[in-house]
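Dear Dr. H.,

I hope your travels went smoothly. While you were away I took the liberty of generating a structure for the chain from your last submission, since the lab meeting agenda had it listed for discussion. I wanted you to have the full record in hand beforehand rather than looking at slides cold. The sequence, exactly as received, is reproduced here:
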Amino acid sequence: KRYRHIFAKTAIVLTVHNFAFQGNYDYRFAKKEDFDDGTTDLSPILSRSFQKHNALRRGLLYADAINTVSPSHAIEVLTSEYAEGLDDALEKVKGKLIGILNGLDTDEFNPSTDPIIKARFTEKTFEKARKINKIELQKLFLLPVNIDAPLLAFAGRLWRQKGVDILLHVLPNLLMQRPDLQVIILGSGDDTYRTKLVELQKLYPRQLGLHLRADFRLPRKIFSGADIFLIPSSYEPGGLVALEAMRYGAVPVVRRTGGLNDSIQDFDPVKGTGNGFSFTNNDSWAFYGSIIEALTIYKQKFLWKKLILNCLRCDFSWEKAAKEYEKWYKHISEERKRATRPISHRAYSSLLI
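The corresponding predicted structure, in token form, is as follows:
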């Protein structure tokens, strides 16, 4: 309160990536008396009750404007499925909530200059280079070197949000029905998932390669050599990994949610448009169907080359996103100035008439 007059004319903007992270307390299991509706005064900072304040709820209620990292997620969080218990607060503030899709650092993620990948490439040289990178991946994951085998990849945290449940439902059938393909998985997380993947690898050692621990260099090698990148997330606010995969020519197969819905357009083999494949229902068979669709196009080398080019030519740079943020910030700042501008005597008199 003591600083309220100092910042009276300053617009407060809140950007939220993941609405599940609301503070230092697990609000899902809070007692009724511990529930923070966001309207009471803050407790002393060293008190135990201070830790029970819901920082995100309060931020939503008192910010002048709110945004999240994709237009689709800004709509999703207004439903109970995605609101993470903040339904009432988000309903109150939906008029000041927007979504701006995340950008990608195209200098850092650049296949023509990236020192991490084995063979660098451009739009003109990707065919030969990506084959070299694919062979390196097969060796790294102890799989038979076969340039013609479709190479599918997953890289991310091994937990439910990333769709690992439906991935594990799909893999046994996929590996059994399609002995011609290979799958590589990178990630750390839930031991239950790790155990199931290790057991599955024992059944299909020549088709399934695993790296079940964190590695911050390996994803770019995967992007630059894998044919298909799997993103079956149950929810994905921004979907940055899809942008990174496309930047290196790995074709994404995604669940249509959050930023993935905004960045992925289904490939049309007749028009030659689109940059990936998608499914809507959070269902293993819907996911399986999208993978089979991708594998069908993979057989058509001319179409697959066109699809990779579409991915490489996508513009998800921060330059585009920054312009949207700049425009939005300017609008919010002007709105705040108007709201705090003193009313003239003439204007006040007109309001009384």
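Two observations you may find useful: The chain has 14 helices and nine strands. The mean pLDDT is 92.

With kind regards,
E. W.
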